Amino acid sequence: MDNREYEQKYKTDVIKFFDSRTSYDNDYTIRRALPLLELIPLKTGQKVLDLATGTGIMAIAAAEIVGSTGKVIGVDFSSGMLAQAEQKIKTLGWQNIELIKADAEYINFEDESFDVILCSTAIVYFQDIPAALGKWYRFLKKGGIVGFSCCSEESCEAPTLIKACAENDILLVNINEPTGTIEKCHHLMQAAGFENIEVKTQQLGFYRSLEQAKRWNGGWFHPRENPLLNLPSEQMEKLQAEYCREIEAKATEQGVWYENLTFFVSGQKV
Questions:
Q1: Which of 160, 188, 185 is nearest to 174 (CA)?
Q2: Regarding beta strands 140-151 and 114-119, do their DSSP bridges make them parallel or antiparallel, or are they unpaired?
Q3: Alpha-carbon span 223 to 21, nearest angstrom
Q4: Between 20 and 30 A from 24 (CA), which of 18, 82, 177, 193?
Q5: What is the pLDDT of residues 135-153, one digit of tens each?
Q6: Which helix (H) or strand (E) element contains residue 145?
Q7: CA–CA gap between residue 60 and residue 29 (Å, rounded)
Q8: Considering the entire predicted model, what is its pTM?
Q9: Mutual orientation of helices 79-92 and 57-66 as an angle, nearest 10°?
Q10: Which of helix, strand or coil describes residue 144?
Q11: How many CB atoms lie within 10 A of CB 30?
């Protein structure tokens, strides 16, 4: 499978995954999104771009702040996510939000079109993060701010999955690796030309029951490679068994800790 074929397969799988999440909004998804706005002093009348807007959690919150004289554009390639966003916007009666169905990685706007660009928890899904940040820099007006959020390398059971696969001689690359530390986030922003860079952290982890923690459907997302694709069922069964053993070893009286250290990153085009 060449790079283009893999990208098409990968993005199709991502779309299917998010289309299937018909009840996306909950306390957790909202709680991990909105802290990004605390880093960004949105003002009435500003124009905001929300990339990978999903169900519009960030877009709607931003639209409330920028008001009727401002505008928010939300971009996503998941019809299911956008349908949920549209319903919420209709219920709220907001007139200052425009939703666009498109691949956020490839969409283009005129240079210096936006005061603020947001991307909540989705930047790691981009194939070329430095290129994406470079485009966002161009899209921003002078003085504009970009803000994104992401997880640490140790989050979302990635180390457990990677270890289980390594026990079976399969090398997995962590999707959170490019932005998985404060230093990496800072370096990426600086390389794209941003200044006044700020990274705040928040632990959003929680305990799950052993039964919940052991559930893994064999899925794995990575924008450039996935050695689990088309794996024989016998080998996948071995991986799942190894994963369960790793999870059982982590169990405590409180349950199994689900690490989710989140970075909220902002920078300015000066």
A1: 160
A2: parallel
A3: 20
A4: 177
A5: 999 999 999 999 999 999 9
A6: strand 140-151
A7: 14
A8: 0.95
A9: 30
A10: strand
A11: 14
